[in-house]
């Protein structure tokens, strides 16, 4: 099973002393994470002001830094609607990318998701379908793109573990009914980050951890960066698998 | 065998840093990187000596060093981060 390090997410600058924002800091965090046992990297590119960005210059800078620091390690980026507005705007930005990540996530609860996903695929960028609920799963099924997905991301947003697992079950019911067979990655955030990582291991799914998902270790101790989180996740993968 | 691999990773990284010293590398801000490179060689040499003496690699050391190096290394030399990561990976298997 694959362990992906989610290095920064939409976390605001300064929210954690080791939150990586620049391309160089993201490359360092990626190196640290791969050394600790991550198989792939997920990052949210940032502009010079530290805010999330899908602008070609910011994306290119991140991809180049990662390629230099970690040649051969799969890199994925977010395309969340909150970063750059409508699907059409995001498609235009993606079309301008020169240095391409290995894969990008598209949130299927967002407007324009299918068109954006097709744009990514046309550019040779792998597709991860982000599913926060059964409605998003249905939209993926209806899009006809499921067979093109590198993996689907089961991303329940509830901070209540029972409710989050219920959402996962509902998403999976749609995927199973629709015979969507691509690999599944399950992850939570904050309160559900570690319980859902353990659940992913129990189900044999791919898993994810990093400062995007949590600032703390399972016992509540503040984590000393992405490397510390990945090292703990790798220990749990080996212990629970 | 794995300690040998770890020591080799240190040696390759030290050699790479010495090459940067020899060509007068500058930091991402354009200043001389000599003091940073000297400190890095000292850190690497200290860790290598400890490991050669039988000590395990401090698991927190690679992350600390990688983050510090990323603050000043120019983009053209980012592969140095991968070398430091190679030390960390080799250290995990010792």
- Mean pLDDT across the residues of chain A is 95
Biggest chain pair interface: A-B, 24 and 22 residues
* Parts with pLDDT < 50 across at least 5 consecutive residues of chain B: none
Give the biggest beta sheet of chain B.
Answer: none
Report the order of strands and helices of chain B: HHHH
Strand content of chain B: under 5%
What does this structure look like?
The complex is a heterodimer of chains A (241) and B (94). With 241 residues, chain A is of the alpha/beta class. In chain A, 43% of the residues lie in helices and 15% in strands. Chain A is built from 9 helices and 8 strands. Chain A has helices spanning 23-36, 56-69, 81-84, 87-95, 113-122, 134-143, 161-177, 193-203, 226-240, and strands at 3-6, 40-43, 75-78, 103-107, 126-131, 149-154, 184-186, 206-209. In chain A, strand 2, helix 2 and strand 3 (75-78) form a beta-alpha-beta unit. The longest helix of chain A has 17 residues, at 161-177. The radius of gyration of chain A is 17 Å and the shape is globular. Chain A starts with a strand and ends with a helix. By secondary structure, chain B is mainly α. Chain B is built from 4 helices and no strands. Chain B has helices at residues 2-22, 34-52, 61-72, 79-92. In chain B, helix 1 (2-22) packs antiparallel against helix 4 (79-92) and helix 3 (61-72) runs antiparallel to helix 4 (79-92). The longest helix of chain B is centred in the N-terminal third of the chain and has 21 residues, at 2-22. Chain B is elongated, with a radius of gyration of 13 Å. The N and C termini of chain B lie close together (9 Å).
